């Protein structure tokens, strides 16, 4: 993960300061609340893990600084988490993973805002720009849900997982 000086200051700060920053980023009310203020070269997995760190997930500083991009997928371990049913509220501040059945891998991660909303980057309709608040029930309507719990999305079958991290 490539932290800016600002991001470095936050990861070394106390728990209450990290929680405050995490809440600021998820609110995304001003330019200062954009994830690019804290991270260089942002990818969806880096963003999800950085927010989870700010909210107190057990990630060491060495792991945080030394891991990036798809290398976070095994650490986030989405498939061991709860599968989203298409209508229940997502817990605030959790990493959400999107699994492509045909490709056999997680293809995007976002962070939950509570209710059925997420925020992410580089994920198209699932969260392209940090300022966008995505309503998953609009992108993945319950009517597009299959009997096995997957959703039809962009001509593919996907599952949505809530990481335990």
Characterization of this structure:
There is one protein chain. The radius of gyration is 15 Å and the shape is globular. It has helices at 5-11, 15-27, 44-54, 61-66, 73-76, 136-139; strands at residues 82-83, 95-100, 105-114, 117-119, 134-135, 151-153, 156-162. The protein has two domains: 5-73, no CATH class; 75-162, no CATH class. With 165 residues, it is α+β, with helices and mostly antiparallel strands. A hairpin with a 4-residue loop joins strand 2 (95-100) and strand 3 (105-114). The protein starts with a helix and ends with a strand. The mean pLDDT is 96. The chain is 27% helix and 20% strand. Strands 1, 2, 3, 4, 5, 6 and 7 form a seven-stranded antiparallel beta sheet that branches. The protein has six helices and seven strands, in the order αααααβββββαββ.
Set out the fold topology.
Blueprint: H1 5-11, H2 15-27, H3 44-54, H4 61-66, H5 73-76, E1 82-83, E2 95-100, E3 105-114, E4 117-119, E5 134-135, H6 136-139, E6 151-153, E7 156-162
Antiparallel strand pairs: 1-7, 2-3, 2-7, 3-4, 4-5, 6-7
Helix pairs in contact: 2-3
Strand content: 15-25%
The low-confidence parts are: none
Helix and strand succession? HHHHHEEEEEHEE
Largest sheet: 7 strands, antiparallel
> How many beta-strand runs?
7
Oligomerization state of this entry?
Answer: single chain
- The gross shape turns out to be globular
**Fraction of residues in H or I helices:** 25-40%
Rg is 15 Å
Structural class: alpha+beta
- Helix tally equals 6
Q: Can you tell me the number of structural domains? A: 2
Terminal Cα separation, in Å?
A: 17 Å
